Amino acid sequence: MFGEPELMAAHLLPGPKPCLIDSGPANTAAGLFSQLEAMGVGELDSIVLTHIHFDHAAGVGLLARWFPGATIHIHRRVAEHLVDPGRLIAGVTSVWGEGTERLFGLPTPVEESRIVALDDGDRIDLGDRTLEVIATPGHTRAHMAFLDDHTGALFCGDALGIQLPSSKVIRPSTPPSDFSLADTLSSIRRLAELGAGSVHLPHFGQSSTGPDQIFDQATDSLNRWHESFLRNRDTADSDLDLQRKLNACVEASLEAVTPVTRKGFEAVNPVWMNIAGMTAEAERKLRLSAT
After folding, report:
1. Which of 27, 103, 109, 156 has its CA 20 to 30 A from that of 89?
2. Tens digits of per-residue pLDDT, 47-99?
3. CB neighbours of 288 closer than 8 A, spacing ≥ 6?
């Protein structure tokens, strides 16, 4: 993704009914297809999406075309955007700007008859295993994680944040437009109670922090970022000043990482995007309190 390795993972669950978790961006779909072919994957039974954001789902229309037997699974709330992605494209472009198509490519429609709308507690039959569907709102309202009941592997999307292979540090992921701090913390607690044997992140791969630690680590990181955001928002003179202040906090105390790791974090989930999501939530709360 973005021309760099190890920024976005699509997870393959092989077996009698091969399943792919997340498709990645549209402009990496051809490379993913070639890699699956090289691995001897001639067909997919299902493509399961953790959420609708372009880095996770924009490539699903192309993969659906190339794997005509695959059923596409996604949260019921956003299933319509796979059929007609027009409003979704407009929304993502409002965040990422003119570079949206260059960064991700654009999604292509999926036939409605191939889509299965998921609800919390659903189970996806993969033949030799079952995926348990777990609603995990917070990063976005329509976010889901998936637990493999055969291996204990937990595929948690962006519910915990980002942990790149070069570091054990987790950066929270709080994008606009519907990030919720309370929901994110609740979702992390729920995932922690599942007793997963391993935790797998789209950004990127199997967590380098054990399943007994990563949930506490994700909670602590999110709380520290949010506290720093609120503290600096109270003293900032402008949006630009807030970004400068929070960037300084990230470098000084919030993230003890190498420049290479920080470059990866900034590519996938830049500080300005976390600020935008936390700001949008703060403004929603202010509007609600005024009514």
Report:
1. 156
2. 999 999 999 999 999 999 999 999 999 999 999 999 999 999 999 998 898 89
3. none
